[in-house]
Structure formats: C-alpha cells, structure tokens
Design goal:
Helix content is about 25%, strand content about 30%. It is built from seven helices and 15 strands. The strands form four sheets. Strands 9-8-7-10-11-15-12 form a seven-stranded mixed sheet, with helices on both faces. Strands 2-1-6-5 form a four-stranded antiparallel sheet, covered by helices on one side. A two-stranded antiparallel sheet has the order 3-4. Helix 4 (about 110-120) runs parallel beside helix 5. The termini are far apart.
Length: about 260
C-alpha cells in the first residue's frame, strides 16, 4: 500500500459540499454519522488521499489527512486554544528550532505544544490544572505519537522555574509578569521570553515588568488574518475575518538591562 492510501488508525478529515469539516480516526467496521449521511470507515481505508467518497445518501465527501491547523481547530479541548494564525507567528517571533529547550507554561489543550514539537523543540510544560494537562498530553500523543520530547508537571510557574539554561520561555496565562523574575534566571543569555495575552492592559503591565529586569529588544504584535473570495470577476475580501485574538509580546534575555531613549 502506498503512502497516499489511507490506513487503519490514521486521522482523516472529511469535508462536505458546504466546507464543513469532520475529524475522525479510521477503524475497521466503524461508521461516521453526519446530518448529510453515513460514511463507512471501510470505504475510506485504502482510498488515496484527496479522493471523493459517497455516504449512504449519495452525498460526496472529500477525504484528506488533516493539517496541524485542522487538528488544532477540531481537537477536543479543555481550554481555549491559540489560533493557528498566532501559532505560526509564535514560531517566528520566538525563533523556535530543532533541539531547543523550551519551558511552556499554561499548556491548555496542547495546541502550542504540538506546534513547538513539530518544529523540533524539547518541551517541559507547567500546568496548574491536571485535567488540562491530561487533555493536552492526549491531544499531543494523538497527533504526534507517544515518543515526542514532551513532559508536563502540575505546578504553578509563578512560584518558580526549576530548569536552567533554557532557550525559550513561552507563556499562555493571565499574569505572565509574575514569571518575569523567574524567567530572568532560567533563560540563558540571549534566550527569548514570549507571552500571549488577550488585552492591551495586561500587555502594558508585562512590558513595564520586563523593563525592570534583564530583558531588552521588546516587541508586541497583533496578527490579523483576512481571506479573499475569488470567483471569476468576483474578487473581494471575505465577509468574515479572524481579527483580534491576542497580543504576542517577546523580549531577549540580556546580561544586563540596556536603557535606551
């Protein structure tokens, strides 16, 4: 069987004529029920990716392996996930690469964890809620397998960081300014601190706290994503867009704070 053909145990994405998307794992003898009809898993197993398959009502579904973005938006979640548009920006703003030692605090449902692991990072996670940690671990293992470099501790990062000489500290939590003093000692010189926050007031407080410690090169960005409708001569922005979701603030760990005018 070629790699183009879908196999038992794989995750696949079914897409109907109205672009509704359904995430499922292929099992022999199983069936997937939608309001548009029933699709037999056995009709999908062995089918080349990118095929059209018919349900019992003769309606067609496109079947593809899901992208990471598909999984993030469709996977089970305990907490709100970071949107794919922000996940891509985090990889660049935090300059994530293979073998980097990353502390991630506030792992939520594991969306950021998956993204970092796919980029080759080695993740230690701090999470205060055990149910979130369990769901995040399951989501990561379902997507990437059980052998990834991923370890979660149930603990409060505002009380301290045990790891030293970290390459990156990434935070998705309400009060990241309470972690700055710990990150100052946990990060290696030149390492990057990055926090994701929903409001500008939180972001302002974080920036003020960073200036009180050995950090510099601060940057705050907001990512807006607008898709376009293109159909013949009908060319216009789509009526809906993913606008504000959060602010990404990053800074570099310095040997000492450099003041600028």
């Amino acid at each position: 069987m070629s790699t183009a053909e879908l196999r038992v145990g794989e995750r696949v994405m079914l897409i109907d004529a109205k672009d509704r998307r359904y995430l499922l794992t292929l099992r022999e003898g199983a069936a997937f029920h939608t309001h548009a009809g029933i699709v037999q898993h056995d009709d999908l197993i062995g089918t080349p990716e990118g095929s059209l398959v018919r349900g019992n009502t003769e309606r067609s579904f496109l079947v593809l392996r899901p992208t990471l973005s598909d999984v993030v938006l469709k996977m089970p979640r305990g907490a709100q996930v970071i949107y794919p548009k922000d996940l891509g920006a985090i990889l660049m703003q935090a300059d994530i690469g293979p073998g980097m030692r990353v502390l991630e605090a506030g792992v939520g449902s594991g969306a950021l964890s998956m993204t970092l692991l796919r980029a080759g990072a080695i993740i230690t996670g701090y999470e205060i809620r055990e149910d979130f940690a369990i769901q995040a671990t399951k989501n990561v293992h379902d997507m990437l397998g059980p052998d990834v470099a991923y370890r979660i501790q149930i603990r409060d990062v505002t009380l301290g960081i045990d790891e030293a000489d970290l390459d990156r500290v990434l935070l998705d939590m309400p009060e990241p300014w309470a972690v700055v003093k710990h990150a100052e000692f946990a990060l290696r010189p030149g390492g990057i601190f990055l926090a994701y926050l929903p409001t500008i007031n939180q972001t302002q407080l974080l920036r003020e706290t960073l200036r009180q410690h050995s950090f510099g090169m601060e940057e705050t960005v907001e990512i807006l994503r607008r898709t376009w409708h293109i159909d013949g001569r009908s060319v216009r922005p789509d009526h809906r867009m993913v606008a504000h979701t959060g602010f990404l603030t990053s800074a570099r760990r310095l040997v000492r704070r450099v003041e600028t005018d």
